[in-house]
Design brief:
The complex is a heterodimer of chains A (333) and B (475). Chain A is of the alpha/beta class and 333 residues long. Chain A is built from twelve helices and twelve strands. In chain A, helix 8 crosses helix 12 and helix 9 packs across helix 10. The radius of gyration of chain A is 19 Å and the shape is globular. Chain B is of the alpha/beta class and 475 residues long. Chain B starts with 25 loop residues before the first helix and ends with a helix. Classes of the chains: A alpha/beta (333), B alpha/beta (475).
C-alpha cells in the first residue's frame, strides 16, 4: 500500500504543479514509511521537502498555501503526532470556507499513518478518526487496500475541501486479518493489491461491500475490514461486510440498505470505545433501521485505555472478539 | 541583570509578591517602561536620566549568595500601575526621532541586533520629520494617510455607538493604533495578502473596500457579505488582500508564512504579512511562524502590534520582563525592528523597508510596532478594572492622528481649519454609509440572511448528512 500512496502523489504532482508534498522526513529520505520516496528527486525540492518538527506549522503552512491557490498534501508522521496541529485543523482549515462565505478555501490533504499492530505503543498506534469526523468542515478517509488508497488519495488531493487521509499502517505491507501469530501475507497475492497504473479516482463518500451476506451487517473500515472478513469466515456466519472507506462523508444509503436487509448489525473499529466512531454508526443504525432490527446493535472496539505496548494483542479487537460478537448477534432473538 | 520583582517582604515566606509597585519604590525604579526598553538606543528624548542601573538591596531579598535556607518563590510580573495609581512614564526611555540608522534591505540580521531594542521614530516633538527613515511620503500622500486614520477613528466611534444601541453584538476599536494598519497598507502592492487580527480594520478602510460591506457584516444584516455566519468585525476580502479573520489567536501568523512560501514556490512577486498582538506572541503559532519563516526564508513581514494590553493582561506576562518582542526574532536570524507605532511616517518607512526586502527575496522581517491600546479591548471589556484611566493620556508616544496633523501644519500643508473640515467630512460620510447599511437591517431589526445560509459553505458540496439536517430544521 506504500507504493499505492506514493503512486497517487506522483500522479497528482505530475498532473498539477500546484500539488506540493512536505512533512517530517518526507523530502530527501522519502518518509519514515517511505511513502514519498523519490518524489523530491523527480519534482524538485520546492515541491517535496522536509519540514521542521512542528505539526501546527506543517498544517498552518499548508493552509496558507491552499489559500494561495496550491494543493498541499502534507504528512503527519503518525496520527498520534497530529495534536499540536489540531487547532489549525479544526478551527482554521475546517472553517475557512464557511466563515469567509467561500471567499477563501482550503483544498488540502493531511496524510497520517493510523492504528496499531506494529508494537508502536501509545504514541504510534492511535486511531483518532472520531476527533476528525466530529469536526464539521473536514472530510475523513480511511482506505483498507492499495487500489482504494490510490484512488481515494487522488480524489482527496483534488477535493476542494480539507481531507484527513488516514493510512492504516499495519496494512502498508499486506492485508492483516488480526492473526498476528501467522506469517505476513503481502499485497501481491490480493486482488485489491493490483493497483492500476496512471490516473483514476475513487469518489469520497461511497462505501464498498467486501462480502455480500444475508444474516448480519458488519460496518467497518481500515484494518478492521480484513479482521471482519476473517471472523466471518471462521464463524461461518453469513455476514455482509461493508467497508465505509470514508467516514465523512458517510454512505448512509449503503449502511441502511444492508442493515434493513440483514436485520442485524455489528460495528467494528480499532479506536477506543467511548465516543468512538462506532458510537456514531450505532446511532445512525438506530435512527434509520430500528424497526428492521432483530438483535441489539453491538460494537467491537479497542478498550478505553491508552494503547499498550506488550499487551497489544489483548487490546487489538481481533477476529476472536469479532467472531463472538457475530455469534451473539445471531443468537439474540 | 537581575530581575527586580523577585524581592519583596513576602518572599521570605515563599509567597510571591503580587501587589503592584508604587511610584518611587525601588521596584518601580527598575521596572519602568512597559515595553519600551531601549537598551542600545543612541539617544533618548523623553527619558531624563535613563533606566536605574544600581541594584539596590531590598529587605527580604532571596537572592543572597550561597543561601540554602530560603524557600523558592514564584515570580509573577505585575504592570507598573493599577487603578488608583498615577501613571508616570517620565523615565521611559524613548530614543530621539531620527537617531536610529537605516540599514540596506539585504542586511544580515546579525548586523542589526540593536534595532530590536531601540525604537525607530521619524516625527519629533516639534512635528518635524527627521533622520534616515524620513522623507518617503509626499505631503499629498500624508494628507491621504491622515484621512485614512480619521476614517478609522470615525468608523470605530459610530460602530461602538451602534453596539451600545444594540444594533450589533460586539465591536473592537483600534483607538490610538490607527497609524499601524493604515501606513502598512500604503506600503503594500495589489495582490499582497494580509493575515490580520481583529484590530486591523485600517487595512480595509484605507483601500477601496466598500465601508458599507463592513457595516453590513457588523450588523449581520441581509446584505452581510459573510451571510450572518461570522462574528462582527471578522471581515474577509481576498480581492483586497485581507484574509478572513479567525477570532482564534495567532493561527493566522503561521498561515501567512505558508502563503508566502507558496508565492515563492510559484515564482510569484507577491508577499504576505502576518499580524499578531503582544499577548498572542506567547502562542505556539508564533514560534511555528518564526521557525518556518526563517527556515524557508519566506517572503513575509511578521508584524507584532504591541499595544501593551491583552484584554486585562499587561504585555509583561507574554514577555516575561525580558528583552523586547522584536528580540524574539533574533535567535531565528530574522531581522527584527522596533518602531514607534504611533508615528505614521516611521510605520510606513519600516513597513516599506520590510516589504521591499521580502519582495527582493531577502526573506522575512519581524516588526514590533510599539503603541498603546487607548480603548477597551472590545465592547465586552472595561479597562477601568485593571489599569488607571489616565494611563492612555500619559503614554509617551502620543496620538498618531495628532502627530501627523502637527507635522503637516508645520510644513504648511495643512491647517486647523482644514483638519476640522476634513474630520467633519469623514464623520458625515461614515454616517451616510451607516444609514445605507441600516436599510438592510441590523442584528435584531429588519432583514437578515436566511437560516438556510447556516448550512451553506460547510463544504463545497453539501453532503448527505447536512442535507438531512437542513430538512429536519425545515429549511
Amino acid at each position: 500500500m506504500i507504493e499505492a500512496v506514493r503512486d497517487a502523489m506522483d500522479v497528482a504532482m505530475g498532473r498539477d504543479e500546484n500539488v506540493v508534498v512536505f512533512g517530517e522526513d518526507v523530502g530527501y529520505f522519502g518518509g519514515v514509511f517511505r511513502c514519498t520516496q523519490g518524489l523530491q528527486e523527480k519534482y524538485g525540492s520546492d515541491r517535496c521537502f522536509d519540514s521542521p518538527i512542528n505539526e501546527g506549522g506543517i498544517i498552518g503552512a499548508a493552509i496558507g498555501m491552499a489559500v494561495y491557490g496550491m494543493r498541499p498534501c502534507v504528512e503527519i508522521q503518525f496520527a498520534d503526532y497530529m495534536y499540536p496541529g489540531y487547532d489549525q485543523l479544526t478551527q482554521e482549515a475546517a472553517r475557512i470556507r464557511y466563515r469567509s462565505n467561500g471567499d477563501f478555501t482550503v483544498p488540502m490533504t493531511v496524510r497520517m499513518p493510523t492504528g496499531g499492530g506494529i508494537f508502536g505503543g501509545q504514541t504510534h498506534s492511535q486511531s483518532p478518526e472520531a476527533l476528525f469526523a466530529h469536526v464539521c468542515g473536514l472530510k475523513t478517509v480511511i482506505p483498507s487496500n492499495p487500489v482504494d488508497a490510490k484512488g481515494l488519495l487522488i480524489a482527496s488531493i483534488e477535493d476542494e475541501d480539507p481531507v484527513i487521509f488516514m493510512e492504516p499502517k499495519r496494512l502498508y505491507n499486506g492485508p492483516f486479518d488480526g492473526h498476528h501469530d501467522r506469517p505476513v501475507t503481502p499485497w501481491k497475492n490480493h486482488e485489491l493489491g493490483d493497483v492500476p497504473e496512471g490516473y483514476y479516482k475513487t469518489p469520497l463518500g461511497n462505501a464498498a461491500v467486501r462480502r455480500e451476506g444475508r444474516e448480519v451487517t458488519i460496518l467497518t473500515y481500515g484494518t478492521m475490514v480484513h479482521v471482519a472478513l476473517a471472523a466471518t469466515a471462521e464463524t461461518g456466519v453469513d455476514a455482509e461486510v461493508i467497508d465505509l472507506r470514508t467516514i465523512l462523508p458517510l454512505d448512509f444509503e449503503a449502511i441502511e440498505k444492508s442493515v434493513r436487509k440483514t436485520g442485524r448489525c455489528v460495528i467494528v473499529n480499532e479506536a477506543t470505545k467511548t465516543c468512538g466512531f462506532a458510537a456514531e454508526l450505532m446511532s445512525i443504525v438506530m435512527e434509520g433501521c430500528f424497526y428492521h432490527l432483530e438483535a441489539p446493535v453491538t460494537r467491537v472496539t479497542g478498550w478505553d485505555t491508552p494503547y499498550p505496548h506488550s499487551q497489544e494483542w489483548e487490546y487489538f479487537p481481533g477476529p476472536a472478539r469479532v467472531g463472538e460478537a457475530l455469534r451473539n448477534a445471531m443468537e439474540a432473538a | 541583570m537581575r530581575m527586580a520583582y523577585t524581592a519583596c517582604k513576602s518572599a521570605s515566606k515563599g509567597v510571591a509578591c503580587r501587589y503592584p509597585a508604587r511610584p518611587g519604590s525601588p521596584r518601580d525604579k527598575k521596572e519602568k517602561g512597559m515595553s519600551t526598553t531601549a537598551a542600545n538606543s543612541p539617544a533618548t528624548e523623553i527619558n531624563a536620566d535613563g533606566p536605574t542601573s544600581a541594584e539596590e538591596p531590598v529587605e527580604g531579598s532571596n537572592e543572597g549568595h550561597g543561601g540554602g535556607s530560603r524557600r523558592l518563590s514564584l515570580f509573577v510580573p505585575e504592570p507598573e500601575f493599577r487603578p488608583g495609581d498615577t501613571p508616570d512614564f517620565s523615565d521611559v526611555p524613548i530614543p530621539k526621532a531620527g537617531s536610529v540608522r537605516r540599514p540596506p534591505i539585504d542586511v544580515d540580521a546579525g548586523d542589526i541586533h540593536d534595532l530590536a531594542y531601540s525604537i525607530i521614530r521619524v516625527l519629533n516633538r516639534d512635528g518635524e520629520a527627521v533622520g534616515p527613515w524620513a522623507d518617503l511620503l509626499t505631503d499629498g500622500e500624508l494628507v491621504e494617510g491622515l484621512r485614512d486614520m480619521l476614517r478609522v477613528r470615525a468608523f470605530d466611534a459610530r460602530m461602538l455607538m451602534a453596539q451600545r444601541q444594540g444594533k450589533t453584538s460586539f465591536y473592537v476599536q483600534a483607538l490610538g493604533e490607527e497609524a499601524i494598519a493604515c501606513a502598512f497598507r500604503r506600503a503594500l502592492k495589489p495582490g499582497d495578502m494580509n493575515f490580520p487580527t481583529y484590530r486591523q480594520q485600517g487595512l480595509l478602510l484605507s483601500t477601496d473596500y466598500p465601508m458599507v460591506d463592513m457595516m453590513n457584516q457588523i450588523y449581520s444584516n441581509a446584505a452581510d457579505p459573510l451571510r450572518g455566519r461570522q462574528l462582527p468585525i471578522m471581515y474577509s476580502s481576498k480581492k483586497h488582500g485581507f484574509f478572513t479573520i479567525s477570532g482564534n489567536l495567532a493561527t493566522q501568523f503561521m498561515q501567512a508564512v505558508g502563503w508566502a512560501m507558496a508565492s515563492a514556490i510559484k515564482g510569484d512577486d507577491k508577499i504576505a504579512a502576518g499580524w499578531i498582538g503582544d499577548g498572542s506572541t506567547a502562542e505556539n503559532d508564533f514560534h511555528s511562524a518564526l521557525v518556518f519563516a526563517s527556515t524557508y526564508r519566506a517572503p513575509v513581514v511578521l508584524n507584532i502590534v504591541n499595544n501593551q494590553w491583552a484584554i486585562s493582561t499587561f504585555q509583561g506576562i507574554a514577555r516575561g520582563k525580558a528583552a523586547t518582542f522584536a528580540a524574539r526574532g533574533l535567535g531565528f536570524g530574522i531581522p527584527s525592528l522596533r518602531v514607534d507605532g504611533n508615528d505614521y511616517l516611521a510605520v510606513y518607512a519600516v513597513s516599506k523597508w520590510a516589504i521591499d526586502r521580502a519582495r527582493a527575496n531577502h526573506g522575512p522581517t519581524l516588526i514590533e510596532f510599539v503603541t498603546y491600546r487607548a480603548g477597551a479591548h472590545s465592547t465586552s471589556d472595561d479597562p477601568s478594572g485593571y489599569r488607571p484611566k489616565a494611563e492612555s493620556e500619559k503614554w509617551p508616544l502620543g496620538d498618531p492622528i495628532e502627530r501627523v496633523k502637527a507635522h503637516l501644519i508645520k510644513k504648511g500643508a495643512w491647517s486647523e481649519e482644514r483638519h476640522v473640515q476634513a474630520n467633519a467630512e469623514v464623520e458625515s460620510a461614515v454616517l451616510q454609509v451607516q444609514k445605507q447599511a441600516e436599510r438592510h437591517g441590523t442584528l435584531h431589526a429588519g432583514d437578515k440572511p436566511s437560516a438556510r445560509e447556516m448550512f451553506e459553505d460547510v463544504y463545497a458540496e453539501t453532503p448527505a448528512h447536512l442535507i438531512r439536517q437542513r430538512q429536519e430544521a425545515g429549511l
